[in-house]
Amino acid sequence: MSVDILIKKIKEKNNPTVAGLDPLLSYVPEHIINECFEEHGKNLSGAAAAIYKFNAALIDELSDVVAAVKLQSAYYELYGWRGVRVLDETIRYAKEKGLYVIADVKRNDIGSTAKAYAGAYLSGADVGGEVTPAFDADSVTVNGYLGTDGIAPFVEACREHKKSIFVLVKTSNPSSGELQDKKIGGDAVYEVMADMVNGWGEGLIGESGYSSVGAVVGATYPEMQKILRARMPRAYFLVPGYGAQGAGAADIVNAFNKDGLGAVINSSRAIMCAYKKTGDAANFAKAARAEAERMRDEITAAIG
Amino acid sequence: MSVDILIKKIKEKNNPTVAGLDPLLSYVPEHIINECFEEHGKNLSGAAAAIYKFNAALIDELSDVVAAVKLQSAYYELYGWRGVRVLDETIRYAKEKGLYVIADVKRNDIGSTAKAYAGAYLSGADVGGEVTPAFDADSVTVNGYLGTDGIAPFVEACREHKKSIFVLVKTSNPSSGELQDKKIGGDAVYEVMADMVNGWGEGLIGESGYSSVGAVVGATYPEMQKILRARMPRAYFLVPGYGAQGAGAADIVNAFNKDGLGAVINSSRAIMCAYKKTGDAANFAKAARAEAERMRDEITAAIG
């Protein structure tokens, strides 16, 4: 099971953090941007080249510190198909470097279309009868608003291709409660979604006891982490909101089980833009590494 | 307002149908696939080339019959970044031909990321201080599970760049009710979402009286169409599920207001694959046109 592969990497590095590679162009050090604009023009090609250079340097420095990277698709799509090509290149490079790669795409659609999305990110495209990988990530995030038939093709891809998914349950943003906290009978919408996650994940429990169908549960709602941890004991949690979104180590302890496992904690801006605090743009990757190490130590101490 | 532009195109063509361009490779006539595999190889490049050729020919034939096209992003992402490049090229070509272009991406994320998605599809990327269009669609579909701050950046893009969005309310798939039909107090989740759509759309009412914040409401649930039509009088409906998903003209009349406006009806497979019924693959585009005309006549008669 894919979740076992993720856990193995977490144990190897003694680090449940995920480095988010969400490369908004304004996060990229100026010297890289200037170099790429000079070579490719001040356009989407130049922007995409800068992003790849930034990502590759971050991966080189982070690959022995973190278990996984999470690529937020929006920051690649923002730069058009050239940006999306960099999404593909970054997935490949991160996998080469031994990282577990989560494509944060939050896809959702009816069954036939969900099957195409599962093909795009997990199981490959049928090209003249041959299965051809497109964006070959280890895992994707999905949105369960459409119910089981929108998720089933992803679950099938997990089973057949050793992949995993994380389903949005309780998101980290301020207004997530507008729908997610509303009560259906005695349960909040996020609890109803949690029960669906349990159902979808039943057939995908690995040797670790965890399922390859995980859940996105925001660090910014620690009390709900607790409730959801109890409600989905076998789901691995992908926890966003740490760092730039305001949550700290105390806010994520509830996401873990007593075995010290059960969650990966994402930080994007705080790692990518660490160099803006040190003021040393030339050594942006070292600054990212230092922040990832600081975060590792902080989190392992908190859950230890 | 963007919704007024859409309505103008609908009136010009006397046709509220949207042709869905969801080009799974198996929908593309064999002679195109063979030609493209020969030129580019039996790989993602060849697949992408075939899809573009198919799309362009369909657009040529359909652009004076339908008001709009809807591009389902999954069927482009399935073929990797090369497929996504074809998404971009198809958007450009369809706009050149005067069509209103809906990118069916169902994106959803926290505020900062939603802003990047809105940039990607509606308002452009900031590249060294210059606004540079990425995928320059007229409209996107979005998923409101994250609440207001995940939708606000799209609404802002609609206001500033004359664009529109369609928010998932009640989807056409069989299991959509698992969450969407559940009751929150006296209302179904889809009604709660409908009220949110009304709120998001308030500031974007055009001369037509309709808002540029619309709703996705599946043709496969005609009774809910009725309820939602009354609940969101100013929202334009994007109605999937007609044709291959089983709904007919009688199932979509409830989506329209008494002014004969208020909805666009999408058909993808039935139009794209019409040639499979006639058995004349050489004239696939003519077969698509005939089906789009048949659908136009059927729908205009039903709502007349």
At a glance:
Two copies of one chain form a homodimer. With 304 residues, chain A is α/β, with parallel strands linked by helices. Chain A is built from 13 helices and twelve strands.
* Main pleated-sheet profile of chain A: 8 strands, parallel, barrel
Name the strands of the widest sheet of chain A in spatial order. Answer: 1-2-3-6-7-10-11-12
Sheet/helix structural class of chain A: alpha/beta
State the CATH architecture of the domain at 2-18 and 110-303 in chain A. Alpha-Beta Barrel
Radius of gyration of chain A: 19 Å
Number of E strands of chain A: 12
Oligomer: homodimer
The topology string of helices and strands of chain A comes to HEHHEHHEHEEEHEHEEHEHEEHHH
Point out poorly predicted stretches of chain A: none
End-to-end CA span of chain A: 26 Å
Q: How many helices of chain A?
A: 13
Query: Helical amount among residues of chain A, as a percent range?
Result: 40-55%
User: Could you name the CATH class of the domain at 2-18 and 110-303 in chain A?
Assistant: Alpha Beta
Looking at the structure, the CATH topology of the domain at 2-18 and 110-303 in chain A is TIM Barrel
Largest interface: A-B, 74 and 74 residues
Could you name the CATH homologous superfamily of the domain at 2-18 and 110-303 in chain A?
Answer: Aldolase class I
* pLDDT averaged residue by residue of chain A: 97
Strand proportion of chain A, as a percent range, falls in 15-25%
Shape of chain A: globular
Question: Which structural traits does this protein have?
Answer:
304 residues, alpha/beta, TIM Barrel, 8-stranded parallel β-barrel, two-stranded antiparallel sheet, 13 helices, globular
